[in-house]
Design brief:
This protein is an alpha+beta fold and about 500 residues long. The chain is built from three helices and 35 strands. It is globular and about 85 Å long.
């Protein structure tokens, strides 16, 4: 006969089950930590150590050069003193003293002082001071560039380590600015374009990480000697561009009651007149926000949309100057003075992911595109407000890269493949060249394409067919950052390296 067994107390069985679940969870956390967690929690130690050694070596070299210059100055002064004529006024070669009231001669540099300043020259017209250039459209027209690249590729003017992140460069007065991740800080860094020397850094606590990588995403903006930098966790800083001194700061997420986006704050600030405009993404009329650029005081707040990763732009459409912005669900135009809505047009995407910059293609028309199967559209804005779709199709799906416009055609990376589309009809002219999720800018009728593997390609912007002129390896590792071009110097970077190439013709 079957005899029932005494059952195990319920609490003991439950404890065993909980212990098993906890054990499995701990094993999973440990595995995650060993594979990717250490990088996301503590940064890439080996890379940051290399970066710190490199910058320390630069400082030592600069100090040694300064000491040598001081010694040379002292030796020259001693020789001049030894060769100086007698101070006796009756001596034939005596130096004449300045007459009373006459201006004193320029003071000689003090011992130990060195200067990198050149003799005064014509003022520099600063050109690439904004994300993707003057119009945020990736179009470089400052001067002609070299398009007959050598078969072996361009030789870098300099190449060196850089901190993490997906920011690009802006350039002013011979200095390139970007924002980087350095261990547990977001750091704005200033580099001399001629030799890559780090001139100053300004950092604050912040360490955004996700599955795509570490660090800040937005590109700083230079305006009238000030730099506006926005970190991946919403920290907005106004800095003195010469020294890095903080002038004012605030967190745009906390200030507007907004949550961060899945891949962090990525839209660059936009300076318009006396304001700096940001995509905060707060509800209750706090989606797009303008602060006084000198003080940081709020000027206006507008709309209720969730933010996108797309940077606002200053454009003229249908004869009206306006801020062109893309949110998670639509594209719209705002009055720069008060943030009042001028027009709006739906542009919903998968999970509200808008990253690509819109492009103005005519007096009242704007091209917009997105990835994740969405495609592209040409939108016509009416002079009295309102907008309509001219065409929409899937011939160009830009994911987190932005297209350029040239002679009636749009060129961009359709899920990683370079594509040319007729702007007026949406017809695809050609598709060729697998560059991955890199970036594209336009110069001299050519496309400068950075691949997601760190190569740089030169392709003719010609609707008749795909024609790659040259391609070479420039950086190692994943390269998603937008290149910058100023004074004929091409600046590229990724999560670990930065380099400069001379494209002057």
């Amino acid at each position: 006969m079957f005899e029932p067994q005494e059952s195990e107390p319920w609490y003991r069985s439950s404890m065993l089950k909980v212990s098993a679940v906890v054990f499995v969870a701990l094993v999973a956390v440990a595995a995650l930590y060993l594979t990717v967690g250490r990088r996301y929690l503590f940064g890439n130690d080996a890379h940051y150590s290399e970066l710190e050694r490199h910058r320390a070596q630069q400082r030592q070299q600069d100090a040694a050069q300064g000491a040598q210059a001081a010694q040379a100055d002292a030796a020259t002064a001693a020789q001049q003193a030894a060769a100086a004529p007698s101070a006796d006024p009756s001596a034939p070669n005596a130096q004449q003293q300045p007459a009373p009231g006459a201006p004193a001669p320029p003071a000689a540099p003090q011992g130990g002082e060195t200067s990198h300043a050149a003799a005064p020259g014509p003022a520099t017209r600063n050109y690439w001071t904004d994300f993707r250039g003057p119009g945020r459209d990736g179009n470089y027209s400052e001067r002609a560039i070299k398009v007959n690249w050598p078969s072996g590729g361009l030789t870098p003017v300099w190449k060196q380590p850089v901190g993490g992140g997906f920011s690009s460069f802006v350039v002013a007065d011979g200095v390139a600015y970007t924002i980087e991740q350095r261990r547990r800080q977001e750091v704005v860094a200033a580099y001399r374009v001629s030799d890559g020397r780090e001139l100053w850094t300004a950092g604050w606590g912040g360490a955004f990480s996700d599955s795509t990588g570490d660090g800040p995403r937005a590109t700083p903006v230079w305006d009238a000697g000030r730099l506006y930098a926005l970190g991946a966790e919403g920290e907005l800083r106004c800095l003195d561009a010469k020294t890095g001194r903080s002038i004012w700061h605030k967190n745009i997420l906390a200030d507007n009651g907004a949550d961060n986006l899945s891949w962090g704050v990525a839209a660059s600030p936009l300076v318009v007149d006396d304001k700096v405009v940001v995509m905060a993404g707060g509800s209750g009329g706090k989606s797009i926000v303008a602060y006084n650029k000198m003080t940081g005081a709020p000027v206006w707040r507008s709309q209720d949309d969730r933010a996108s990763y797309t940077s606002p732009m200053l454009v003229t459409l249908a004869g009206k100057r306006q801020i062109l912005a893309v949110t998670a669900t639509r594209i719209l135009g705002l009055e720069p003075a008060d943030g009042k809505l001028i027009w709006s047009h739906p542009w919903p995407t998968s999970m509200g992911i808008n990253v690509s910059q819109p492009i103005v293609t005519g007096p009242n028309r704007v091209f917009i595109s997105a990835g994740y199967g969405k495609g592209a559209s040409l939108i016509e804005v009416a002079s009295g407000g309102g907008a309509r779709t001219v065409w929409e199709n899937i011939n160009l799906k830009t994911k987190f890269n932005s297209p350029v416009y040239h002679n009636g055609h749009v060129y961009g990376l359709d899920e990683g493949i370079l594509t040319c589309v007729n702007a007026e009809t949406g017809e695809r002219k050609w598709k060729g060249g697998r560059y991955g999720y890199g970036q594209v800018i336009l110069a001299n009728g050519h496309l400068i394409v950075t691949t997601d593997g760190g190569e740089i390609a030169l392709v003719k912007a010609d609707p008749s067919g795909f024609n790659e002129v040259a391609k070479f390896a420039a950086l190692e590792g994943k390269t998603w950052n937008v290149p910058a071009l100023a004074g004929g110097k091409l600046l590229v970077r990724n999560e670990t390296q930065m380099a400069c190439f001379d494209l002057s013709s």
